[in-house]
Amino acid sequence: MNDTTSREKLNKLRNDFPALHQLVRGRPLVYLDNAATTHKPRAVIDTLVQFYSMDNSNIHRGVHYLSEKATFAYEKARGQVKRLLHAKSEQEIVFTRGATEAINLVAKTFGDMRVKEGDEILISAMEHHSNIVPWQMLCEKKGARLKVIPMNDRGELLLDEYEKLLTEKTKIVSIVWISNSLGTRNPISEMIKMAHEKGIPFLVDAAQAVAHEPIDVTKFDCDFLVFSGHKSYGPTGVGVLYGKSKLLEEMPPWQGGGDMIKSVTFEKTLFADIPYKFEAGTPNIAGGIGLGASLEYLESIGWDWIMQHEKSLLAHGTRLLTEIAGLKLIGTAANKAGVLSFVMDGIHPHDIGTILDRHGIAIRTGHHCTQPVMQRMGVPATARASIALYNMPEELDVLAETLKVVKKVFER
Question: What domains lie within the chain, and their CATH numbers?
Answer without folding.
Answer: 3-31+302-411 (3.90.1150.10), 46-299 (3.40.640.10)
